[in-house]
Design goal:
The structure holds two protein chains of two kinds. Chain A has one domain. Helix content of chain A is 73%, strand content 0%. Chain B is mostly helical. In chain B, helix 1 runs antiparallel to helix 2 and helix 2 packs antiparallel against helix 3. Classes of the chains: A mainly alpha, B mainly alpha. At the A-B interface, helix 1, helix 5, helix 6, helix 7 and helix 9 of A face helix 4 and helix 7 of B.
């Protein structure tokens, strides 16, 4: 609850930056507020085992962990946004406010224990994203991305609302506990009212859209490519973490015993998603579009975590999401520097990076290796843990498909790495220096290494 | 009496909503939407939810539809019927998908016994402003307050997207 308050207030305050011409202190102030939110999230007073506010919000370990990851990744993205917004967009304060509000929405989603609260959360998460996607107003692609995301997103919201209404109609309550005991009151899920099942399915459709999994992934390449790079990485990391956390919360706390019925559906969709994502990523030239398809593919791997939900810890998904987020942030940070000097966002634009910026190239290589799932890095541990759990649940065929997909993934991740080592035609790339940028990149890369070699650091904390 | 009224309203709502999506003229489309909203408000009244009915008419049929009409008139859309290309395959796919979804819903509805709320709607109090306010400020206080974050975000968004750069 505390981080929600801190970030909401910080968001409102940061809107005054424009009014008082405080652009210089904007970023430090916002960073400080985000740090405060991170700290308040870990306060013992923030923890509660029973839902607060007439059963609306529950910050148990699950929500605190997800909130911690979301806030931490936002912090890093905000630091990196310095390069993007260096020429100081006019609405700097408003844009930071939208970032913070979006995180608030994500935290509400993972903490909610009531469908109304849940819906409010998903909207607070999404609406700032629609606006941020279109925030580069002079860029037609960005306008297209915003409009596309908004239209499809609001269309999917309608499905979710219909699903919530059907669930409410059959159960008579919005409360997760009430719905859970309603499901428990039936011996097997075959006896559950059909209308309830349809409602649950419609809510899941909304999730599948939000995590950009097949068959609702069509929006993500266009939206990711069109929106500003900083926003894109925010959508691919924080918003996706929130969507996965929310989906877990819903499957676990709300429909609990029934969630196993959807295992086969999730397995098929996961296989489809990762295959589509990886196959499409093979032929991309734009780095952003490649990362978009790689994000679709990773949604597929992550969806394997939805299978047999009742007996497994939720740690692995969060770990995978954290590791994926860090690698993605590094890739986008390198993209930003290259785009600035080259003017093009294609993979070929990376050429000559090694000659001018060996450190940056090193970070990029490790990030790509982690995304591809090469052993000493954290990406491997994440994939391994998810695969092992899927085998334990008896989905060996799915793991075979996932393994083939990982091999496919190596192809295009290595293409990016190879481009970085090739000599450029016009001499080495000149990249202007921005304070603190490399330090953050190196820290992220170290986090990837440390998390990969000592995964128990993550799994042991909680 | 109630049943007859229900069927009349239902027919009106369905007919006007079909007219909304099928009419080629934007003006007719908007006006049919207004009529649909009035029919829906009738349902709310029948369910003793006066407050929702009035809000529905004031906000949707009033404010939002007037906005729509203004936009339609200012863009002069009422003169040229809109022609959206619709390939046969997409049309077929849409009909099949919609039909399957409708069938699922009907089948599900016929197999489900909804919890009857006859006694609760019989209470005239259920939809009154007083009951609603009590619900909103007790049980649903937190979502109600957090909706303000949503509205602020939306307002900021409008400024970000539309303000002229100096």
């Amino acid at each position: 609850m505390y981080p929600i308050i801190v970030l909401s207030v910080a968001g409102i305050l940061s809107m005054f930056i424009g009014a008082f011409k405080l652009k210089k202190v904007a970023l430090p102030a916002v960073l400080l507020a985000t740090l405060a939110a991170f700290g308040s999230n870990l306060l013992p007073q923030n923890f509660n085992d029973t839902p607060l506010y007439s059963g609306m919000l529950q910050f148990d370990w699950f929500s605190i962990r997800y909130a911690a990851v979301m806030i931490a990744v936002t912090l890093v993205i905000l630091i990196l946004s310095r390069r993007y917004y260096r020429d100081a967009a006019e609405h700097l304060g408003d844009i930071y406010a939208l970032f913070l509000f979006s995180v608030v929405g994500g935290m509400i989603m993972v903490g909610s224990m009531n469908l109304v609260m849940f819906f409010v959360g998903i909207e607070i998460l999404s609406i700032p994203l629609y606006i941020l996607a279109a925030s580069e107003r002079n860029n037609l692609l960005s306008n297209e991305a915003g409009l596309k995301y908004f239209l499809l997103g609001s269309f999917i919201t309608v499905f979710m609302l219909l699903g919530i209404v059907l669930v409410y109609g059959t159960v008579g309550s919005f409360d997760f506990d009430a719905i859970n005991s309603f499901v428990h009151s039936y011996n097997s899920s075959d006896e559950l009212p059909m209308l309830f099942k349809v409602g649950v399915l419609l809510i899941l459709v909304a999730f599948i859209f939000k995590i950009s999994a097949a068959p609702f992934h069509f929006w993500s390449p266009d939206v990711y490519q069109g929106s500003p790079a900083v926003i894109m990485v925010f959508m691919a990391t924080v918003a996706k973490t929130a969507a996965f956390g929310g989906a877990y919360r819903f499957l676990d706390a709300c429909i609990g015993p029934m969630s196993d019925d959807f295992s086969v559906m999730f397995a098929v969709l996961a296989a489809l998603t990762m295959s589509i994502g990886n196959l499409m990523a093979l032929r991309q030239d734009s780095l952003k579009r490649l990362l978009a398809f790689s994000s679709v593919a990773n949604a597929g791997y992550l969806m394997m975590g939805f299978i047999g939900l009742n007996e497994k810890p939720t740690d692995t998904t969060l770990y995978y999401m954290l590791v994926y987020s860090i690698a993605n942030v590094i890739a986008i940070a390198v993209y930003l520097t290259v785009k600035e000097s080259q003017g093009s966002g294609s993979i070929a634009g990376l050429r000559g990076l090694y000659q001018s910026k060996p450190l940056l190239t090193f970070c990029l290589v490790l990030a790509m290796l982690s995304l591809a799932g090469i052993p000493p890095l954290a990406g491997f541990v994440g994939k391994y843990a998810i695969f092992v759990e899927a085998i334990r649940d008896g989905y060996a065929w799915l793991v075979v498909i996932a393994a083939i997909n990982s091999v496919l993934g190596i192809f295009y991740y290595f293409r990016v790495m190879r481009a970085a080592f090739e000599p450029a035609e016009g001499g080495p790339v000149q990249v202007p220096y921005v304070l603190g940028y490399s330090a953050v990149l190196v820290m992220c890369t170290l986090a990837l290494l440390v998390l990969g070699i000592f995964p128990n650091l993550f799994f042991g904390i909680w | 009496m109630q049943q007859i009224l229900f069927y009349i309203l239902a027919l009106l709502a369905i007919a006007f909503s079909i007219a909304t999506i099928t009419s080629r003229n934007a003006m007719y489309s908007v006006l049919s939407l207004v009529a649909t909203f009035f029919a829906l408000a009738g349902f709310y009244l029948m369910l003793n939810a006066e407050f929702v009915a009035f809000v529905h008419i004031i906000v949707y049929a009033g404010a939002i539809m007037v906005l729509f009409l203004f936009v339609v008139m200012m863009l002069n859309l009422n003169q040229s019927p809109v022609n959206i290309p619709r390939p046969l395959l997409a049309r077929l796919a849409a009909v099949v998908a919609g039909g399957i979804f409708g069938l699922t819903l009907v089948a599900a509805l016929s197999q489900t016994i909804l919890p009857t709320s006859a006694e609760s709607t019989a209470l005239a109090e259920v939809g009154s402003v007083r009951t609603l306010g009590k619900m909103l400020f007790n049980e649903f206080l937190l979502p109600f307050e957090l909706t303000s974050v949503l509205f602020i975000a939306t307002m900021v968004g409008v400024v970000v997207l539309t303000k002229k750069e100096e």
